[in-house]
Amino acid sequence: MSDIAVTPPLNPGAPVKPDPAKPALRTVVLYRTKLWVRVWHWINALSLFFLLVSGLQIFNAHPALYWGQAANFTHPILAMQGVPVGGSWRGVTTVFGHSFTTTGLFGASDYHGSIMRRGFPSWLTIPSDRDLANGRRWHFFFAWAFAINGAAYFLYILIGRHLKKDLWPTAEDIRSIPRSIIDHILFRHPHGEAAARFNVLQKLAYLVVLLGLLPLMILTGLTMSPGMNAAFPILPWIFGGRQSARTIHFICAWSLVGFFAIHIFQVFAAGVFNEMRSIITGRFAIKVPADAPPFDGEGVAR
Predict the structure, then answer these.
(1) 83 in a structural domain
(2) Lowest-confidence region among 103-112, 139-148, 191-200, 229-238
C-alpha cells in the first residue's frame, strides 16, 4: 500500500462555511454625485479639452515664453524652434538656455508627410493646420462656456455649502495626510462608507484646482487681451506684464493636464466601472458589513 494520503473529493452540494476571518459583506448602492455636479464635471471636461488644443494652436503662432514687464525677446525662458537642416527642419526646444533636439514633437514635426516648422504637432492642435484665426474662435467659444459653467458651479457650492461640507479639509483630515500619501503610493483605496467620501488628498487637489489654477487661468487669459488691459490696467500690473501672464497661463494649463492625468489614473486604479457610473448616473457601490444599519441616498446610516 502506498503511504500517500488521498484527499477525499469535494462534495459540490455541501454548503460552504463562511470564513470567520472574513466578515460577511453586502453591497450598497448610494446616490453619491448629484446631477448639477455631474453636469458641471462633463461641461468642464469638454471645455478644458478644447481650450487646451485650441490654446496650443494659438501658442504655435509664437512658440516662445518670456517673463517681465520689459520682456527680453532675445532670451526666452522657453522656445520651440525649427532649425533648417539639409532642406528639412530639425526641432529644437530651449528651456532656460539649455537646448534639446525634439524633432517630431516640438519645434518641427510631420504634417502630411513632410517635416514642418511648428511648436506643437498638428495632432495636438485644433485646427490641425496652422490657422490662428480659427484657433482663437475655438478658444474664445469654449472659454465662455467654461467661465459661465464655472460661475454657476461656484454659486452652487456656496449656496449648497458643498465647499464646506465636502471639500474643506478638517483637522482630522490634515493629520491623516501622511497616511493618505502612503495609502496612495501602495494603491490602498478606502472601502465601505469611506470610499463614498473624498479623502484628504482629493480635497486638497480639488481646492488647488478650484481656488487656484482655474481662477489663474481666467485672469491671466484676460490679461493677455489688449482690450482688457485698457479696461482693467491693474491686471498686467498684478501679473508683471502680459508676457508673464502668458507664461503663467501656459504653466497652469499643463498643471491641469497633469491633474487630469492623475485623476484618470486613479479612476482606473479605484475601479473604472464604479467610478464612471458615479459620474454618469450618480450611483456608487460600496461594500459594508452585512449587519450594518441601512443607508439612505446620501450614504449616512439611518
Answers:
(1) yes
(2) 191-200
Strand partners, 140: none
Q: How many CB atoms lie within 10 A of CB 249?
A: 22
What pLDDT is recorded for position 5?
41
Number of Cβ within a 10 Å radius of residue 299:
19
Domain assignment present for residue 251? The answer is no
The answer to whether 189 touches 286, Cβ cutoff 8 Å, is no
Confidence at 4, pLDDT banded by 50, 70, 90: very low
Instruction: Say if residue 207 is exposed, middle or buried (CB neighbours under 10 Å; 0-12, 13-18, 19+).
Output: middle
Determine the 3-state secondary structure of 161 from DSSP.
coil
Helices and strands: H and E segment counts in the chain? 10, 8
Residue 198 has pLDDT above 90, yes or no: no
Backbone angles phi, psi at 146, to 5 degrees: -65, -45
What values do phi and psi take at 111, rounded to 5? -145, 105
| CA angle centred on 301, ends 297 and 302, rounded to 5° | 90
How many beta carbons lie within 10 A of that of residue 47, not counting itself? 20
The answer to whether position 236 is within a domain reads no
**71 vs 32 pLDDT, higher one:** 32
Task: Examine residue 240 and state whether it is found in any structural domain, yes or no.
Answer: no
Its domain, for residue 120, covers 63-124
Provide the residue count of the chain: 302
Read off the pLDDT of residues 13-67 as tens digits, 9 standing for 90 and up.
555 555 555 668 778 888 888 888 899 889 999 999 999 999 999 999 999 999 9
In the chain, how many domains are there? 1
Q: How many CA atoms lie within 13 A of 79 on its CB side?
A: 17
Cβ contact 77:67 at 8 Å: yes
Backbone angles phi, psi at 296, to 5 degrees: -90, -175
Angle at 283 between CA 202 and CA 279, to 5 degrees: 50
Closest CA to 63 of 125, 144, 143: 125
Distance between terminal CA atoms of the chain?
A: 64
